[in-house]
Each structure stands twice: as structure tokens, then as C-alpha cells.
Amino acid sequence: MQTPSIVLNVNGIEVIYNHVILVLKGVSLQVPEGGIVALLGGNGAGKTTTLRAISNLLKGERGEVTKGSIELRGERIENLTPADLVKRGVVQVMEGRHCFAHLTIEENLLTGAYTRHDKAEIARNLEKVYTYFPRLKTRRTSQAAYTSGGEQQMCAIGRALMANPSVVLLDEPSMGLAPQIVEEVFNIVKDLNDKEKVTFLLAEQNTNMALRYADYGYIMESGRVVMDGPAVELANNEDVKEFYLGMGGGERKSFRDVKSYKRRKRWLA
Ligand SMILES: Nc1ncnc2c1ncn2[C@@H]1O[C@H](COP(=O)(O)OP(=O)(O)OP(=O)(O)O)[C@@H](O)[C@H]1O
Ligand SMILES: [Mg+2]
Asked: Which domains does the chain have, with CATH numbers?
């Protein structure tokens, strides 16, 4: 089988907020064409910052990439605007969903097509979104504020799809949702990946769920990638199980603590 080409290549990036706070300390990752890559790690690990660096949404947060490079299909993109990136097929679905509360679901979806002008094409796209998210079709005239958390997450993803992206950066799709709904959302992600060939880079604290759907994962801690590998390998890795899948029992420490603890244990044994 041919190895898939790399869509996104993040190469040793550093990100600083407010000119002084160094948050990403040399992050590198690669996303293959047609893949689902999970960016994992606990609170404050740097997942959102990494996604924002890629989609160039750091400025509003007073953040900037100070080192390293980001390439989309081999082309440097650090200096493109978020709108340029949307035109090139890279869209981010923000953490916390951010639907426009006073607009209906359909109006929300249509805002996602703001870079496009072909009305017939937009209408076809809307129908396609509804085939993947039938729940949104039944709620199309409801104000987003009165829909459930799951429907709002679907609306946020559906809106991103209205830009006809090839790469979706999805930030914590499971946040605040019941397990059954998380499963429903992830199944749709998988479906979009299979049938529409949309590539996903998804940030998740829900390691267990993300590794079930992703092909490959990167684990972040304190602004660095501490481990990466095929999803199946990460899901079966003892350290990952102990610290992120909560199967080891006992108190959860940092990933680096575990590794040095294990080294010590081996040393003493
Ligand atoms: N606008 C900002 N200004 C200053 N520091 C920030 C800003 N945004 C994030 N940070 C800091 O950067 C670090 C990484 O945050 P980030 O939001 O990227 O983590 P995360 O992995 O997405 O966490 P979570 O899972 O909680 O969403 C944290 O220490 C956070 O406090
Ligand atoms: Mg985050």
C-alpha cells in the first residue's frame, strides 16, 4: 500500500502568550491525508494552543508562534489569515462549541459558508450536512440556544463542514456530553472521514474514546509531546493505561513522573 502523504506538518513550534508565557516548547506532529489524529493530554497541556497555532487563531489570544514552522501540503502557512486557511480547506471547530445562540440551527450552518458564493452549491452542501446529522435537520428551525449540548456540538461541526474543508481541527468534541452522545458524534466523525475523506486532527481529554476512533495519537504534557504512536499501540501501552485511561488505580501523576518511577522500579528490581 502506498504511504499517505502528509497534509499538516508541525515542526518544532514554540508559542508564547502575552510576550512572556512560553506555552508550547517545541511541538512537532504530522497529520496524514485522510487520517484521524488525536492530540491527547490533560488540562493545560497545550492542545488548544496547538490547534490555534495551526489555524492562526492565536492573535486574538495575544499569542504568537515564535519558533518552528507549520506546513499545509508542503507550503508554509504561519502567515496566512484564518480566512485564507478556510479557503484552503482548513477549518477549526472551537472548544465549547460556540453556536450563535439567537440564530436557528440552519442559520448557524449557513454562517459556515461565508467564504463561498455559489448558492446552489451551498444548498447541496447543507443537504449533505443534514444527511450526516439527521438530528440537525429535525431541529433546523430551532434557535440554537434551545437545543441540547449534543445538537450544539453537531451544529458546530456541521457549520465547519459548510466551508467544504479537507482538514478539520476539532477541539474537545466530547466536552460536557453524555457518553452516548459522545459516541454518536465520534461515529459521525468516522463516517465523514470514511465517506467524504475529511482529515481530522482532534484534541481530546477523553483518551479512551479518542483512541478508539483515531489512527494515530500524540500525548501532550506541559507544552511538549511526551509520546506518540498508532492509536492501538497507545491504547495498549501500560503507561497510557495507567495514567490516561485510569486503569492503574491510585493517584494520577504526570506522565514523566511515571516514566522515571518505572525506570527506578526496574533499576531496583
Ligand atoms: N490566552 C492565553 N494567555 C495566557 N496563557 C494562556 C492562554 N491560553 C492558554 N494559556 C495557557 O497555556 C497553557 C496551555 O493551554 P491550552 O488551552 O492550550 O491547553 P489544553 O491542552 O487545550 O487544555 P484543556 O484540556 O483544559 O482545554 C495553559 O497553561 C494555559 O493556562
Ligand atoms: Mg483545550
From this structure: 6-89+167-268 (3.40.50.300), 96-164 (no CATH)
Non-local (6+) Cβ contacts of 136 within 8 A are 105, 109, 129, 130, 151, 154, 155, 158
Q: How many angstroms separate the alpha carbon of residue 226 from the centre of ligand 2?
A: 17
pLDDT in tens, 34-52: 999 999 998 899 999 999 9
| pLDDT one-digit tens code per residue, 87-101 | 999 999 998 777 899
Mapped onto helix, strand or coil, the DSSP state of residue 206 is coil
Q: What is the pTM of this model?
A: 0.91
How far is C-alpha 233 from the geometric centre of its chain's CA atoms?
A: 20
Taking ligand 2, which is a single-atom ion, which protein residues have CB atoms under 5 Å away?
47-48, 95
Distance CA 31, CA 45 (A): 19
Instruction: Give the ligand with the smallest distance to the CA of 62.
Output: 1
CA atoms within 13 A on the CB side of 23: 23
Q: Integer distance in angstroms from the first to the last C-alpha of the chain?
A: 44
